[in-house]
Structure formats: C-alpha cells, structure tokens
C-alpha cells in the first residue's frame, strides 16, 4: 500500500472495528480496516499453550450472553460454548461460607450506595462511599479493581452505576478472541499499518501510515482511549474535545497469567481464591477454568503496573508467593508458568479497558459523537452501558456503521 482509495476506512481492527466493517461489507460498501498489529482482534486475543488449550489473554467472558451480539456470530461459526457459571465465591477452605456471605452483603451494600449517590447527580470517587478502614475495604477494593482495572479512588460513581449486565456469562472453548478475529474473514484489511495521522482538512480524509496514505470519504475511528488521549496530533485539524474525552476515560489495567497446575483434581472445577483479602494489590486465581489443569491468574490496577515493570517473571514469582502463602510451601512444585500478556506496555493498547474518572461519565457520549458526518467513533469506551466489554465494542461499531450508511444516504 502506498496510496489507496476507499470509501470508508475503519481505523483499528478490534471488536468494534470488525463489527463496523462486517456491517459495511454486508451493505456492499467499499471499506478497509487499517490495523497497526500483524493480527486482528486487538484486546480480543487468543493464544494456544503447549498442550493445545486456547488461552484468552484479553476478553474471555461473553458477558450478558442473553443479549450479547457475539453469541450469534459464534453460533454461525459453529463454536462450542461453555455455559458454566463464573466463580463468584471463594474456596471455603480459605474463607468460610459465613464470612463470604458477610462479604457478599458488603458488596451488595456498596452497589446500593453507588446507585443512591449517582441518583443525586453529583459524581465522586467510589472510595468516598467505603469507610477507609472498614472490615471489607481491602477485599472490596481488590474485587472492584479486578472488575474495572482501577482502584475505587479513581472510579466515577455515575459511570459504574450506568454499567448494565444481565449476569449471564458464557465462554468459548476455542477462545473469544479467536472467534472475533475469525469473524473478519470477508473484510478487506491492511495489517501492520499504524495510523499516525487522520487529516480531515480536505475533501477526502487522508489516513497516514508508514506504508502510505489511504484516502477515504469517511472514517470510523475505533482506537483505544489511551491512544487518542496521548496523541494530540492524531487528528488534523486537532479535535481537543476528543482528546479530553479520551483522557477522562483512561484504560485501567488487568493482566492475566496462565499457570499449569499438577494434580489439579484436588481443586474444584471453576473455583476461585484471592491471594489477600486486605488490599487491592493481590491476585485473583481462577482454578481449573473449563475443567483444565490450569490456574488463570488476574492482576489489576496499580499493582499490575508494578508487576509489569518487574518483567514477565515478576507475575509468576508474585503468584507463587501468594499461592504458597495459602496452600503451603510445597505447592510451588506443582506450578509452571505458561503465558502472560502485559497490556499496559502493549503499544497498541496501553491498558485493558476503560473506566471513567470522577466527573467524566458523560465523556463517553462526547467520544462517540460523529464529527461533520465524516468522522465516526466506536470502541468499548464509547458505550454508555456496556463499556469495557467486547460486546459493548461490537454494538458501538455496528451503530457507527449505521451512521455511515445514513450519512451516505443523506449526502
Ligand atoms: C485482560 C483482559 C480481560 C478482558 N476480559 C473481558 C471479558 O471477559 N469480557 C469482555 O467482554 N471484555 C473483556 N475485556 C475487554 C475487551 O477485550 C475490550 O473491551 C474489547 O476487546 C475492546 O475492543 P475495541 O475494538 O473497542 O478496542 P481494541 O480491541 O483495542 O481495538 C482497537 C484496535 O486498534 C488498533 N490500533 C491501536 N493503535 C493503532 C493505530 N495507531 N493505527 C491503527 N490501529 C491501531 C489496536 O491494535 C486494536 O486492534 C478484557 C480485556 C483485557 C485486556
């Protein structure tokens, strides 16, 4: 590619970009996904370990499965679902059931306080709703940081209150990421083409990449907020309201590490434990996902950034220290690291999923708004109710494609 002309350029080939391009292609609109990486899928990314298991390094759960549009796509591909419930409670050998019930009540109370606070219309950090030294403050912070990728002191109450989830969570045996990437099979794609500038000053939009320039009548931008927020020169003329919106919706961090576990049968299938219950800087360990002899470990928030700074080995060393703290020193012999992915230093993600900082919940609509009916925006951060998810990304991509189709009709 040195100079390409296309009617619609879709910038970014993750869940949102693929969804948009699929719809445009279905309407026989000439479109091209322009993607920085050598693969499609973005934060939807499945790899295989040595024993052949599909490991989702990014999204794994099809949240709100009863209304998740990826379910139909996966079904049309003949994919096998796992409908096992995600582990909600902790292993009883680590935390007695009664204690867990007390924590469950504290968690429910927090969501109730979030709803009440949001209803006042005054946004504030969620940490203000939790006593600084309450019995459950550490574990509430650990669970919420795992969910949102950021600690309670950084998160907007109003934004969290808008999040919707039907509580039905499925997975795909061969990987969510693999299914999303495969769904782009009929879409034209330019890989390894990082966009450096979107010049919308002239009659055509000029999309600049190191491989050449793409001219388009319209473009759908699906880049992560980390990229939009950090690159003021990405758009020409500049779009300061988009930069500001993206900065209000930074990506939190959640990194996974998969560990092989010897004699896994000792543990229940799909069971869970947190390394510590008194602070956010801990790991969430999901034992035997899909019944496999593995532990899927999650590290989130500021602590995940610190682990990334320590290199790949830091994740495993930390996991071993927490797991031997729970199950005894001998447990270390049963563990072997398999794969991790450092999303915080991944140059085309720079984080895992978006959260709104206090006061920025309405920035999602600002980010999503089209510019002059030529530049359209999609991506998980644009979603009001399904942000931070792959199905939220799908829906925003599909809506952006609808807007393009309507704009063509009106022009
Ligand atoms: C560890 C982890 C666990 C998760 N778990 C879940 C889960 O269980 N369920 C769920 O629903 N969601 C989950 N998510 C979130 C989900 O993966 C994302 O919300 C979703 O994939 C985002 O899609 P997107 O299209 O908005 O963004 P992206 O997937 O980030 O797509 C943007 C694309 O733009 C590309 N790009 C970046 N810069 C440039 C550039 N300059 N030029 C061209 N292209 C560029 C990127 O490479 C990428 O392909 C998880 C994410 C992570 C990281």
Give the overall shape, derived from the CA principal axes.
Answer: globular
Report the portion of residues in β strands: 15-25%
Spatial separation of the terminal alpha carbons: 29 Å
Roughly what percent helix? 25-40%
Largest sheet: 8 strands, mixed
CATH class of the largest domain: Alpha Beta
DSSP strand tally = 19
User: Which CATH-level-2 architecture of the largest domain?
Assistant: 3-Layer(bba) Sandwich
What do we call the CATH topology of the largest domain? FAD/NAD(P)-binding domain
Kindly name the structural category.
alpha/beta
Rg, alpha carbons: 22 Å
Q: CATH-wise, what's the superfamily of the largest domain?
A: FAD/NAD(P)-binding domain
Poorly predicted regions: none
Mean pLDDT: 96
Number of domains: 2
Number of helices: 12
Bound molecules: flavin-adenine dinucleotide
Verbal overview:
With 411 residues, this protein is of the alpha/beta class. The chain folds into 2 domains: 3-81 and 171-250 and 358-410, 3-Layer(bba) Sandwich (FAD/NAD(P)-binding domain), CATH 3.50.50; 97-168 and 254-340, no CATH class. Helix content is 33%, strand content 20%. It is built from 12 helices and 19 strands. It has helices spanning 15-26, 69-76, 97-119, 137-148, 157-162, 176-182, 225-230, 240-248, 301-309, 312-327, 363-368, 390-410, and strands at 3-11, 31-34, 46-48, 54-56, 81-82, 171-172, 189-190, 197-199, 205-209, 212-221, 235-236, 251-252, 254-261, 271-274, 283-287, 294-300, 335-340, 353-354, 375-377. The chain is globular, with a radius of gyration of 22 Å. The mean pLDDT is 96. It binds flavin-adenine dinucleotide (FAD).
């Amino acid at each position: 590619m040195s100079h390409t002309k296309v009617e619609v350029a879709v910038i970014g080939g993750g869940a949102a970009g693929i969804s948009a391009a699929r719809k445009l292609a279905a309407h026989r609109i000439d479109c091209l996904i322009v993607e920085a990486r050598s693969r499609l899928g973005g934060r939807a990314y499945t790899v295989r370990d040595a024993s052949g298991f599909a490991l989702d390094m990014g999204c794994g759960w099809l949240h709100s499965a009863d209304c998740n549009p990826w379910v139909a796509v996966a079904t049309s591909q003949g994919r096998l679902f796992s409908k096992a419930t995600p582990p909600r409670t902790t292993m009883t050998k680590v935390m007695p059931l009664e204690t867990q019930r007390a924590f469950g009540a504290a968690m429910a109370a927090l969501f109730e306080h979030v709803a009440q606070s949001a209803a006042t219309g005054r946004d504030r950090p969620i940490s203000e709703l939790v006593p600084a030294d309450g019995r459950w403050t550490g574990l509430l912070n650990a669970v919420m940081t795992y969910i949102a990728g950021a600690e309670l002191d950084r998160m907007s109450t109003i934004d969290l209150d808008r999040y919707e989830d039907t509580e039905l969570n499925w997975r795909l045996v061969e990987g969510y990421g693999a299914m999303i990437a495969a769904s782009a099979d009929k879409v034209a794609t330019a890989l390894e083409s990082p966009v450096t500038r979107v010049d919308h000053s002239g009659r055509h939009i000029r999309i600049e990449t190191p491989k050449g320039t793409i001219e388009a009548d319209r473009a759908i931008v699906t880049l992560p907020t980390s990229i939009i927020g950090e690159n003021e020169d990405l758009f020409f003329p500049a779009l300061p309201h988009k930069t500001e919106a993206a900065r209000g919706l930074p990506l939190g961090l959640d990194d996974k590490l998969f560990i092989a576990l010897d004699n896994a049968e000792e543990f229940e299938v799909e069971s869970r434990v947190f390394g510590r219950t008194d602070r956010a800087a801990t790991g969430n360990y999901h034992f035997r996902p899909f019944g496999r002899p593995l532990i899927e470990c999650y590290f989130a928030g500021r602590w995940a950034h610190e682990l990334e700074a320590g290199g790949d080995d830091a994740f495993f060393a930390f996991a071993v220290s927490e797991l031997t703290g729970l199950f005894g020193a001998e447990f270390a012999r049963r563990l072997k690291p398999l794969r991790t992915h450092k999303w915080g230093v991944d140059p085309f993600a720079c984080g895992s999923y978006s959260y709104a900082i206090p006061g920025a919940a309405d920035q999602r609509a600002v980010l999503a708004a089209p510019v002059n009916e030529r530049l359209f925006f999609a991506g998980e951060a644009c979603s009001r109710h399904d942000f931070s998810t792959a199905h939220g990304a799908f829906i925003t991509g599909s809506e952006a494609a609808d807007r393009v189709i309507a704009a063509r009709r009106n022009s």
